[in-house]
Specification:
- 0% of the residues lie in helices and 33% in strands.
- It has one domain (7-117): Immunoglobulin-like, CATH 2.60.40.
- It is mainly β and 118 residues long.
- A seven-stranded antiparallel sheet has the order 1-2-5-4-3-6-7, with no helix packed on it.
- The two termini are 27 Å apart.
- It has strands spanning 7-11, 29-35, 45-50, 60-64, 75-80, 91-97, 115-117.
Length: 118
């Protein structure tokens, strides 16, 4: 089901999400997603790292990437740094729209696909 503010094409992803992407503790890696909505309201996005124990880290503001072709419209990216090893529970990163985009008074939906790493 697609929410009010769709978040699609989340990266990093390996084998269509069947395998976790790998990351090293303390080493930054990019997280990107396509985030869009109907209308003309301003939109923002953030990435949230979630540890294997379910602890949510502070959100990292995602920045809109320049449009280079018709496939790169509404593409957002942030660099995040894992602070603990994934292990059996696996860590996750959830990119999604911000609760309220800069300059907007409309709260956003928080349902978003996740990218998993170990």
């Amino acid at each position: 089901m697609v929410g009010r503010i769709p978040v699609i094409d989340v990266m990093p992803v390996l084998d269509l999400g069947r395998l976790p992407a790998k990351a090293t503790v303390g080493e930054p890696f990019p997280v990107s997603a396509t985030v869009f909505r109907e209308g003309h309201d301003r939109l923002g996005a953030e990435a949230v790292l979630i540890g294997p124990d379910g602890t949510r880290r502070a959100p990292v503001r995602m920045h809109r990437l320049p449009t280079t072709d018709r496939f790169s419209v509404d593409r957002y990216e942030a660099w995040v740094v894992p602070d603990q090893q994934g292990g059996p529970g696996r860590s996750r990163c959830t990119p999604g729209p911000t609760r309220s985009a800069p300059g907007s008074t409309t709260p956003a939906s928080r349902s978003a696909p996740t990218s998993t790493w170990s």
